[in-house]
Amino acid sequence: MMLSAAEWAIVALSLRIALVATLLSLPFAIWIAWLLARREFFGKSMLNIIVHLPLVLPPVVTGYALLLLFGNQGPLGALFETFFGITFAFRWTGAALAAAIMGFPLIVRAIRLGFEAVDQGLEKAAATLGASRNAVFVRVTLPLITPALLTGAVLGFAKAMGEFGATITFVASIPGESETLPSAIYTLLQVPGGEANALRLIAISVVVSVLALAISEWLARRAIKRVAGL
Amino acid sequence: MSLEVDLQSTLGAFKLDIQLRAGQGATVIYGRSGSGKTSLINAIAGLSVPQNGCITLNDQTLFDAQKGVNLPVHQRRIGYVFQDARLFPHLNVADNIDFGARYAEGPLSVKQRDTVIEMLGIGALLQRRPAALSGGEKQRVALGRALLSTPRLLLLDEPLAALDVQRKQEILPYFERLRAEGGPPMIYVTHDMSEIVRLADNLCVLRNGKSVAQGTAEDVLANPANMKLIGVQDAGALITGVVDHHADDGLSGIRLSAGMLFAPRMNVAVGTSVRIRIRAQDVILSQSEPKGMSSQNVLKAKITAIEEGVSSGFAIALNAGTDRLLARITARALSQMELKVGQCVWAVLKANAMPPSAIAPS
């Protein structure tokens, strides 16, 4: 099955959006997961709810909220435009932001479970050997949660690849800019006689998803083995 | 090295009130589970924060509740060997033992590292993962890891408790060697008397969160007043002697200041100084010199103290030559024999009361 240039562009754009969304949200997800797993502070349950909101809200609501906040007229949108020169509205960056927000709760949940599973006795042992808090985190905690990090990253990536509702509400579906695989499939299905082309894209999305899952399984198994000391 | 601890904490109904002074050599903290042993060494390591008190090591204040000083764990340079080893599962043995090297004071020479590896016999394990090690191997690696972080003080929290008897006997010599070869000072927590006879220079007894007795191991164990603290089953004094000969009939002769003692044959060379723990309940007292008895071990001794113990027993402190003995007799025996302080008696010891685990080179 040969892909046309237009189809390739859609696949490449989807992959780029999903990758950027996953990689950029990982550090924040690690931080939030650590706060939720290890810290007690005022407003912790509030933070937990906010993080989980995208999971329970209708995606179109999240997309609309993003439009209000990060649109050209939105307070945060204007801020990013002025200070970083980044525009979100109707751009691939906006699609990546939407994908990141939608995948965030999944990533946080996976990593939080990882933190909770770490034997804190090992961290204490590392401290008695002279490692500062940061060193303990980098040399003991992070390596021990790699399976959870991988699981979280793959879940986030898969969610980003499939994200539709929030993305199309926030950045529409502009070919070459914000037209991802799902939104392209949706657009084709709206056109009479577009099913054949839609099917090709559907096949591609199935292949990409299966590949991602297979790779993640393999990586996670290796990581679990390593962490278990085998 | 000098460590001074004075701490108070209240955890629900449990009150901790411990004073401890420790110097060179091995200081054993003895007590039953729940007596506060682990709380004490966690406070020394900085893993827990006492509510009140202060801890100083070599004139450096590690903790002072009043002044608000609490040096973080990683800056204390106090090694800790945990009961459950706590090796890092994602690192092999070599990376485990080298974990603390980069934080150690001054660079660690290759020779020092090799010495520790050789002493602990872990050279063949270096490339293995912790999951592939036996319990005894794990503890040896954990000890090596702590030593290679060049600690000023080594804390050991019942390092042998998770091992079976055979493994214990395998590991104990490494701790003995460490003590004999001038390793760092040790605070060694245990509830096993046989580890005390082999390791303890000093002894601190904890009971219900309080430090109730401390001093040299000999002094603490020979004090009849301490019998109820240590427990009737475990109480007993330490005596010292020199291995005199190994007889053909399976006994070894040990020369004491007050005479010859025969114990089941042991695996140490003639001329070695040994320390023997004689449990108080294995000592029988006789007013006249016993003749025609199966026991080979009769020592003439003088009563120095009589202390009432628990459950209608009495603790009798004795001097035999320069050694001190402790005997436990019933109240009835005490009144029938009319024992008094200053009186001379014969102490009868069964050879079987001195198993190899109660005898250690000193």
Protein model, in words:
The complex is a heterodimer of chains A (230) and B (362). Helices cover 80% and strands 0% of the residues of chain A. Chain A is an all-alpha fold. In chain A, α3 (59-70) packs parallel to α9 (165-171) and α6 runs antiparallel to α7 (133-144). Chain A has one domain (5-227): MetI-like (MetI-like fold). Chain B has helices at residues 37-45, 73-76, 93-97, 110-120, 135-147, 165-180, 193-199, 217-222, 227-230, 331-337, and strands at 3-11, 14-22, 26-30, 52-57, 60-64, 69-70, 78-81, 153-157, 186-190, 202-207, 210-216, 236-246, 251-256, 259-264, 273-279, 283-286, 297-308, 313-320, 323-330, 344-349, 359-361. The longest helix of chain B has 16 residues, at 165-180. The radius of gyration of chain B is 22 Å and the shape is globular. The mean pLDDT of chain B is 89. Chains A and B meet through α6 and α7 of A and α2 and β7 of B.
Sequence-ordered SSE layout with sheet pairings:
The complex is a heterodimer of chains A (230) and B (362).
Chain A lengths: L4 H34 L5 H13 L2 H12 L4 H10 L7 H26 L2 H9 L4 H12 L1 H17 L2 H7 L9 H10 L4 H33 L3
Chain B lengths: L2 E9 L2 E9 L3 E5 L6 H9 L6 E6 L2 E5 L4 E2 L2 H4 L1 E4 L11 H5 L12 H11 L14 H13 L5 E5 L7 H16 L5 E5 L2 H7 L2 E6 L2 E7 H6 L4 H4 L5 E11 L4 E6 L2 E6 L8 E7 L3 E4 L10 E12 L4 E8 L2 E8 H7 L6 E6 L9 E3 L1
Helix pairs in contact in B: 5-6
